[in-house]
Amino acid sequence: MSHLLDSVYSLLKESASPMHPKELATALIQRGMWSSKGKTPDATVGARIYCDIKKHGDQSRFIKAAEGLFSLNPNVKVELPDPGKNAGKAVKRKQPEKSAGSYSFSDCAEKILLHFSGNAPMHYRDITNKALELGWLKTEGLTPEASMYAQILTEIQRREKQGKIPRFEKLGNGMVGLTIWKSTGLERHIDSFNDKQRKVLMERMMQLNPQDFEELITTLLSKMGFSEVSRTPYGGDGGVDVRGIMTVQAKRWKANVQSPVVQQLRGSLGTDERGLIVTTSNFSKGARDEATRTSSHTPIDLIDGDQLVSLLVEYNLGVKKNRYQLLELTPSFFSDEEEI
């Protein structure tokens, strides 16, 4: 487990309030808990936390509390070492038990609503209890109901930003439904139109020259929160180096990326560096398996063509959302009952 992230965890636990990566980096260095030869230690700290959240999802020790601020995930229990024993040993995070029938919070919600709701909305607490009862949801968090609702709301917001119809509908007072139950012809028409626009966006990317494609990826990474991003040439495919944080390869390919590309990138990484491969195509099974190897190997993050297009839409790069918005009444506005 990363010594840097263990130290970040200790600082956040001590502060009991969200902190900016710059505050964290300064405190870590001043206390002698971490050292960095990079010119942007705050960016390194922020990227490592961001990558941990991306990798572990709702089981990460950290959450993004606000723009540029991170705090501890209240739903993840961590075993802290006895201060008088085993000094210097890494903090160990309890991982949830995995089973063949376990799903993410949002996937559990969809399955429960499809199979047990009778096509009627359910309260997020009832959804959570049913998922736990069936063994579909495995978590050691102390408030799984809150995690369930937070995951559903987060997915709704993100899909809307990506110009997609969300799976779920927030109905107020903690009630949740599926959009497929009542989606209109107009909504489906909009979804179909947006799908075509995403394909055109992909075609435009494929027509970019290598330099412009590298610039696009650099801009996207900056929008995603990597504050220090610079371009460096990498063969003819496009390479982007995020100084002191992450080495990125951008592949404007039609063919799938194979495992040797992942192996090559991993071999070029230094201590505490991470790798990211962004492609307009997809990844072979071998490449995906190679990227997720963690035993004595640095994990490599992957973004395929579909994910790349969704990120461009989410961060309004190459597209913009027009003024037409459908109005929908919110029953909870006229209710005294709080949603959470």
Describe the structure using short key phrases.
alpha+beta, 5-stranded mixed β-sheet
Main beta sheet strand tally, sense and closure: 5 strands, mixed
Q: SSE string, helix = H, strand = E?
A: HHHEEEEHEHHEEHHEEEHEHEH
- pLDDT < 50 runs, ≥5 residues: 80-100
Radius of gyration: 22 Å
Mean pLDDT across every amino acid position: 78
- Number of contiguous helices: 11
Structural class: alpha+beta
Care to give the gist of this entry?
The protein is an alpha+beta fold. The chain has helices at about 5-15, 20-30, 40-55, 105-115, 125-135, 145-160, 185-205, 210-225, 260-265, 285-290, 305-315, and strands at about 60-65, 70, 80, 90-95, 120-125, 170, 175-180, 230, 240, 245-250, 275-280, 300-305.
Task: Walk me through the structure.
This protein has 340 residues and is α+β, with helices and mostly antiparallel strands. 42% of the residues lie in helices and 14% in strands. The model is unreliable at 80-100 (pLDDT under 50). The radius of gyration is 22 Å and the shape is globular. 29% of the residues are buried. The chain has a five-stranded mixed β-sheet, sandwiched between helices. Strands 5-7-6 form a three-stranded antiparallel β-sheet. The protein contains eleven helices and twelve strands.
Question: How would the blueprint of this fold be written?
Answer:
Blueprint: H1 3-15, H2 21-30, H3 41-56, E1 62-66, E2 69-72, E3 78-79, E4 92-93, H4 105-116, E5 122-123, H5 124-134, H6 144-161, E6 168-172, E7 175-178, H7 185-207, H8 210-223, E8 230-231, E9 239-242, E10 246-251, H9 259-267, E11 274-279, H10 285-291, E12 300-303, H11 305-314
Parallel strand pairs: 10-11, 11-12
Antiparallel strand pairs: 1-2, 3-4, 5-7, 6-7, 8-9, 9-10
